[in-house]
Amino acid sequence: MSCVRAVLPIMGSCIAFLLGILCLFAGSQRQLLPQASLLTLYTGGAGGPGAPDYFSVYTMSYCTGFQETCVSDETTNATTTKNEIVGCSDRNVLFTFNPSDAILKAMGTPSGSLSPDSWPTCITDDFEAMGPTNTTMVVFFIFGTTSAALAIAARIWSIACARASGNSRPPSYTGDPSPRFDFETPPSLVEFLIFLVISIRLTYLSLQLSLLSFGLASIIASVITTEFVKLINTSGNEYGVSATTGTSFLGMAWTAAVLQGLCTLYSLVDIFRYRARCRMPTSESAEQKPLVGSD
C-alpha cells in the first residue's frame, strides 16, 4: 500500500503533463485534437465568395474549415452538417489570430484586403487585442507543463533514494533473507536532510509552480472562451459572424490544474507525516535488529 501511495503524485503529474502538452499542441495538424480549440469562429458568409465557413482557434495556431450539408436519412430527407478542416497554420508561441489575413490566405489572395462591407473590422481588432492575453496563457501552460515534468523527475528520484536507503538496511528479523523496504520507515538524520528537505521539498515546489501556472492559464482560457466569445457574438451579429466556446480545451486545462492541486496537497501532507515520524521516539521493541546467524 505504501508503494501505491508513493507513486500517486507521479500518476497525477504524468496526466497533468500530458494534458498540458495536448493543450499546447492541439490544432497543430488536422488530425491532432481538432475539437480541442479555444473557440470556433463562424464567418456566416462574411468575407466574400470562397471564404471559409469557420476557423478553429487554438493556443498556438488555427485551422481553416468548411461545412458540408449531408443527408442523414433519405426517408425523411433529414440533413446534418459536417465540419471538415482543410488546413492548419504553423505553431507560434507569439500567435495572434487575424481573421482578415486568414480569410485572404484561404482564398488565395494573401496580398489583398477585405472590404469593410464584407467583413467587420471590429472582429479583427478584437482578436488583435486578445493577442497579448493569449501569449500570456501559452507561457503559463509552458511553465505548468515543464514544472509537472520536474515534479515527476523529483518524485522518481526521491523514491529511488528511499529504495537505496531501504536496501542498505539489514533484514528486520531472523530468517528474513530479503532486505526490508518500507516507505513508512522514518529515515535517519542524514537521509532525512537529503531525502526529505531536498527530494520532497523539490517535488512540492515543482507542484506548486505547476499548480499556479495551470491555474492561471485555465482562468485566462475561461475568460477567453466566455467573455470574449460574447464580445464576438455581439460585434458580429449584424454580419452573421458568431463564435462558440471550446469545452474540450477547458476540460483538459482545468483537469490538469485540479490534478496538480491534489498532488500538491498530497506532498504537503507527506512532508508533515515524515516530520512527525522523525520526531517520534523509537522504542526498543520497534528498533530493527540486524540478522544474527546461529552458531
From TrEMBL:
<keyword id="KW-1133">Transmembrane helix</keyword>
<dbReference type="InterPro" id="IPR009571">
    <property type="entry name" value="SUR7/Rim9-like_fungi"/>
</dbReference>
<feature type="transmembrane region" description="Helical">
    <location>
        <begin position="211"/>
        <end position="229"/>
    </location>
</feature>
<feature type="transmembrane region" description="Helical">
    <location>
        <begin position="138"/>
        <end position="165"/>
    </location>
</feature>
<dbReference type="InterPro" id="IPR052413">
    <property type="entry name" value="SUR7_domain"/>
</dbReference>
<dbReference type="GO" id="GO:0051285">
    <property type="term" value="C:cell cortex of cell tip"/>
</dbReference>
<feature type="transmembrane region" description="Helical">
    <location>
        <begin position="6"/>
        <end position="27"/>
    </location>
</feature>
<dbReference type="GO" id="GO:0005886">
    <property type="term" value="C:plasma membrane"/>
</dbReference>
<dbReference type="GO" id="GO:0031505">
    <property type="term" value="P:fungal-type cell wall organization"/>
</dbReference>
<protein>
    <submittedName>
        <fullName>Uncharacterized protein</fullName>
    </submittedName>
</protein>
<feature type="transmembrane region" description="Helical">
    <location>
        <begin position="249"/>
        <end position="269"/>
    </location>
</feature>
<keyword id="KW-0472">Membrane</keyword>
<keyword id="KW-0812">Transmembrane</keyword>
<dbReference type="Pfam" id="PF06687">
    <property type="entry name" value="SUR7"/>
</dbReference>
